[in-house]
Amino acid sequence: MAKSTLPRICVCLGAPSLAAMEGLVENLNGSHLAYELRLDYLQDTNDLEGRLHQMLTRLHLSQTIATCRRAEAGGFFQGTVEQQVELLAAAVRAGCQRVDLEFESVLSAGPAVLRQFAPAKVIVSYHNFRETRSLRGIYRQLARLPVAAIKIATQARHLRDNLQIHRLLKAHRRQSPKLVALAMGPCGIPSRVLALRWGSQLTYASPGNHAGTATGQLAVEHMRSVYRVDRLDRRTRLYAVVGSHASMSLSPTMQNAAFQAKRVNAVYLPCETKQLADFLALARELNFLGFSVTMPFKRAILRHLDWVDPLAARIGACNTVAFRHGKRLGWNTDAAAVVEVLAKRLRLAGSRVLILGAGGAGRAAAYALRAEGAEVLIADGREQAARKLARGTSAQLVPWEETGNLEVDAVINATPVGMAPYPDGIPVDLARLRVRVVFDLVYSPLETRLLHEARGRGLITITGLEMLAAQGARQFEIWTGQSAPRALMEQALRHAIHQGATS
Question: What is the pTM of this model?
């Protein structure tokens, strides 16, 4: 049996047949990867040893971990511990170099069961799919066993649960047996990206966007190309996006592409939480140097800042924070981005601009354009919100039902109308509205129905992707002091949206 150092990224293969697992591997650039074979996913385990040996030989897989997770440990195998052990032993005879056996099975069968997998190395694993509790006691129990490595994976219900993983890895970085630790779920994504940097022997990934075996797993190509997880070191600077749906954000793709292009040793993470204080605790302990703020925290973050850009203060929302000399400084780059992209097509001073939507994006656009001397008209189905914004910006209030009867230079859609997965919506009737420039802040899909109809009428159009890239570029410049690679950032976003639409 070949003996070599286990690669540090392990791809989890969960499929109903060996042929399907083989297909997943063939679709990957498999160099410097390990593979975890989830045998509990298989619908047919007859002659497993022979068929698995043939698959490993065909694919030239030299680093594999056989796992057969029982139902009580979060897997799909319904058999006894004895049957589980026999399947794993068959996988070793077929050529698997390592076996992952959950702690529950070791407790049931006794530590002597570990000798049945020789000459394979054994990883004993503990999973908690409900929460992250104190991990020291669990570690001490596992460390007493005669195994090559320990794996601890717990569900992150809060971002601060990542800190328990960080502290555990820091405390046992150079000890034996070797330690693998991570937090599962969307809140646990930071631990998956930073695991190797913190000292974990492995981090786990899925073979594709929709083929994970645990919540929070990222596609292996995403882990390698976007986050460069195996290249992060102690000098790597940390940035993030925080919000209630941050795990779905495209900003990591954009910002990490910019860091790589400019050779900045930094990584930008998605930090998903429903409590701002939860993120701030994480950022403080891990020494984040800056972060983006998305819904619902753009207003709440203001009271945690030491300085706020005057325009952001007038808007009452901040989407960009940088740490300088121990102080938290805040800006609103949405506002600057609206001006930047619209000014390329229109002389703003004296122009009439209709803004559809009085939420955060609409507020940023209204304040920014009024500061440039534009005449702003506000419309929103929520009349009270529209009235408040119009009053605060000295703009004109327009009833929603009358938006199609206007003559303006530009219209900005700052509502979610037309956004995937409901792309058929359109916020205004262009057949009646007299306008030259149509600007849609929605970026998924890339061409909304509003923009499609506008192009058909020969109007000038601006995509939400251009806006997203512009605000992200300004964030990059605030954090690094370097000029942003804007074209590359927009290209990275375009590729990510295309991949999401086709995967």
Answer: 0.92
